[in-house]
Design goal:
Largest sheet: 8 strands, mixed
Radius of gyration: 21 Å
Strand content: 15-25%
């Protein structure tokens, strides 16, 4: 199969769909890979590294899209990229369609076969291609939140871990999944006063066993959340409903009860955000302030630590990339229901029910496309 890797063009997105090492694996399996020039510059991988791995370098994205049977990316295709997709072409990347009707319509119109990293499952029901970026985003959320909490970042001027004689910042983490767990690890490590809100008894028990007295684990209810946000210096939104729009957990009215200079970090912004006042931002202008509260809502947070993120992502995505290339998408999905769960759009039809429900678009089953 001829596989194409275009340079990412989303604002301040420095990751790349394939590392040179992943290219070498595909080439060794008998496939051809073409890479847009400078696609790997954001991770320190020069064109020469890709050529040494067996790839051919192309000058433009158009050359990549015109020639490749499968496009491997990181972020959702931008409008100019969606216009270059063609019927039957495989697109393997993050999509996050539920809050994005324009992208969804364009992908349906393209006739392409669009596989979303974030809805591919494992035999245990986890999301293995989303997990590495959830880990990165969770850890990064505390790092960026701490900077935003500084006075020069628009915040209250509070040091996360405090100092002897001065209390540490109160960090409230909503959701104890991969994002929340990794955020809590970092916040605890920085000696903050950490509370994790969670609804699952199993997850609460796991978190309590892991953190002990280092973090408080509390059952999440609307009333509990409403009280805790009033005292929080920083709130991390770490909720996820696979493939669907995130629930709006902090309302505009609740925001008004928060302290001036407190910080919201919405890690769920890719799925529409879990705060009512959230809107996507970029690494160029990552924050804005509403009712005195600093909002950090960057939609591609892991792009800031592009090398770490790309290598973590490739470790998870390369297995299915090879299967798709070796077997073709139909046979690969017939053999693997977990990969089949990643099919979101197929040859003019929407195939992921949660997206259809969010956007009011009729769906068909992935099986019907095989």
């Amino acid at each position: 199969m001829l596989i194409g890797v275009p340079k990412e063009i989303k604002n301040h997105e420095y990751r790349v769909g394939l590392t040179p090492e992943s290219v070498a694996e595909l080439v060794q399996s008998g496939h051809q890979v073409i890479v847009e020039t400078q696609a790997g510059s954001g991770i320190g991988a020069a064109d020469g590294a890709y050529e040494a791995a067996g790839a051919a370098i192309k000058s433009t994205a158009q050359e990549i899209f015109e020639a490749a049977e499968m496009i491997i990316k990181v972020k959702e295709p931008q409008a100019v990229e969606r216009a270059m997709l063609r019927p039957g072409q495989i697109l393997y990347t993050y999509l996050h369609l539920a809050p994005d009707p324009e992208q969804t319509k364009d992908l349906i119109k393209s006739g392409a076969v669009c596989i979303a990293y974030e809805t591919v499952t494992s035999h245990t029901g986890e999301l293995p291609l989303l997990k590495p970026m959830s880990q990165v985003a969770g850890r990064l959320s505390i790092q960026v939140g701490a900077a935003a909490l500084q006075k020069n970042g628009g915040g209250r001027g509070v040091l996360l871990g405090g100092v002897p004689g001065v209390a540490p910042a109160k960090v409230l983490i909503i959701g104890g999944g991969d994002v929340g767990f990794n955020a809590a690890q970092m916040a605890v490590g920085m000696q903050a006063d950490v509370t994790i809100l969670e609804r699952s008894n199993i997850v609460m028990e796991r978190l309590s066993d892991y953190f002990g007295v280092q973090a408080k684990v509390v059952r999440s209810t609307p009333a509990v959340l409403a009280e805790l946000v009033k005292e929080a210096d920083m709130v991390i939104g770490a909720v996820l409903i696979p493939g669907a729009a995130a629930p709006k957990l902090i309302t505009g009215d609740m925001l008004k009860t928060m302290m001036d200079g407190s910080v919201l970090v919405d890690v769920a912004i890719d799925q529409g955000g879990c705060f009512e006042t959230s809107r996507p931002t970029t690494h160029e202008e990552p924050t804005y302030i509403i009712d005195g509260v600093v909002h950090y809502c960057v939609a591609n947070m892991p792009g800031a630590v592009s090398r770490t993120s790309t290598y973590a992502l490739n470790a998870a995505t390369i297995y299915h990339a090879k299967r798709l290339a070796d077997l073709g998408w139909k046979e690969a999905m017939r053999r693997d229901e977990n990969l089949r769960n990643g099919l979101n759009v197929c040859e003019g039809k929407l195939t992921y029910a949660a997206v259809g429900e969010a956007l009011g678009i009729e769906t068909v089953t992935a099986e019907s496309c095989l």
